[in-house]
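Input record, target 12 of the design panel.
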């Protein structure tokens, strides 16, 4: 049964202790040899719900018993093979995994068995290059990516570099925190990248999707005025419920640029592009306010955007890319959630139902975020 999870789940469900495992030693009684996973052997091929071996953590890694994982549109891109960077094959996708540390390699520092931990898109990075040195670890040329180059969170046990794994406060609802681990971190960082101040207008293009529904809330919590853009009445209702002051339905306006500029009294100071639409991104370069910032986040296959040079110069606009976030962004984004400033509008289904979730996502029928329960 689908449901928009209420925020009143039992304390028992929030806490998922997993005790009795020795450091670096997978105890045979508590950690099984095999586990359930969704795995594919070729891009676009069958998504198989299979029993596969539980991975062994390397010396620098945690083994996390994943309880819940959010389903990001990136997982769909990865399965389809949409991007120029090849995925590992076979692959277990997923990069919004929330769970419990059950084992760890001998070089891990600062973690205990039973801690709550998150699997992020950036599973690990080299920590030695110029980008890692400057806290831009996601831009590391050696980045290892969960659910892309490293088996991710659509399995019951997954490994993560202990340095990059997200720290989740004790007592946190693991289903609800899971979308924060990619969607939340990404939109929070994108909002920082837009360089706005309190009272500025920000347009969230793709406002009712997984990233967008969190972007609306982070933006509001950061003191900005939010215009949501998405398609359809239901999406408008959700964006407004989450805090958008205004909503523009792109399917209903012949002149989107005019509609957005009118709603924001001359154009938004910032735009967070989280739709999977090249056209929507190009339009944002036209409706953004003079001196404003367009932030590119969504990654439609093969997309290229054009910005008309004359107005780009005369309006002195900025176009910036933003790619997940670093460890500090993660800590801060989780903190907004922990303080109740941001809530995850989630639908929880079994892991085995992932193919149906991809189908809904492909058709643009998802409101908020689907989260899979790895026990089903
Ligand atoms: O670090 C990054 N840059 C990063 C991190 C995570 C995800 C980038 N992403 C990328 C994903 O790979 C994907 O391309 O962000 C994109 C959005 O991910 P998502 O939020 O997980 O997707 P979704 O839940 O399907 O939401 C997309 C929303 O866009 C709307 C849809 O209706 C949906 O609500 N949308 C579309 I498609 N076309 C639109 C348009 N023309 C539109 N909204 C406004 N205008
Ligand atoms: Zn993601
Ligand atoms: Zn590096």
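The sequence produced for target 12 reads:
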């Amino acid at each position: 049964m689908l449901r928009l999870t209420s925020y009143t789940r039992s304390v028992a469900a929030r806490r998922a202790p997993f005790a009795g495992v020795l450091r670096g030693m997978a105890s045979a009684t508590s950690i099984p040899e095999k586990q359930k996973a969704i795995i594919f052997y070729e891009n676009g091929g069958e998504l198989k719900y299979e029993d596969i071996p539980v991975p062994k953590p390397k010396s620098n890694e945690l083994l996390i018993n994943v309880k819940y994982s959010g389903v990001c549109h990136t997982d769909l891109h990865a399965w389809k093979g949409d991007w120029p960077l090849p995925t590992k094959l076979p692959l277990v996708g997923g990069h919004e995994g929330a769970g419990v540390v059950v084992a760890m390699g001998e070089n891990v520092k600062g973690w205990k068995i039973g801690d709550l931990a998150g699997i992020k898109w950036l599973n690990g990075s080299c920590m030695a290059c110029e980008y890692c040195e400057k806290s831009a670890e996601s831009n590391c040329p050696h980045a290892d990516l969960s659910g892309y180059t490293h088996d991710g969170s659509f399995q019951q046990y997954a490994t993560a570099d202990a340095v990059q794994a997200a720290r989740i406060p004790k007592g946190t609802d693991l289903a609800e925190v899971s979308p924060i681990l990619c969607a939340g971190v990404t939109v929070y960082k994108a909002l920082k990248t837009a360089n706005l101040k309190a009272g500025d207008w920000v347009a969230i293009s793709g406002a009712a999707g997984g990233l967008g529904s969190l972007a609306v809330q982070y933006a509001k919590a950061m003191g900005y005025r939010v215009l949501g853009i998405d398609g359809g009445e239901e999406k408008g209702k959700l964006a407004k419920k989450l805090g958008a002051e205004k909503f523009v339905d792109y399917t209903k306006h012949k002149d989107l640029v005019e509609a957005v500029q009118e709603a924001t009294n001359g154009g938004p100071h910032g735009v967070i592009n989280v739709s999977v639409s090249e056209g929507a991104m190009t339009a944002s370069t036209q409706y953004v306010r003079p001196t404003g910032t367009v932030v590119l986040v969504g990654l439609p296959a093969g997309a290229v955007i054009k910005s008309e040079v004359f107005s780009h110069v005369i309006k002195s606009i900025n176009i910036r890319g933003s790619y997940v976030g670093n460890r500090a962004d993660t800590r801060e984004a989780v903190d907004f959630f922990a303080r109740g400033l941001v809530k995850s509008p989630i639908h929880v289904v079994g892991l085995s139902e992932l193919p149906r979730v991809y189908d809904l996502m492909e058709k643009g029928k998802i409101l908020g975020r689907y989260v899979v329960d790895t026990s089903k």
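The domain at 11-179+325-373 is CATH 3.90.180.10 (Quinone Oxidoreductase; Chain A, domain 1).
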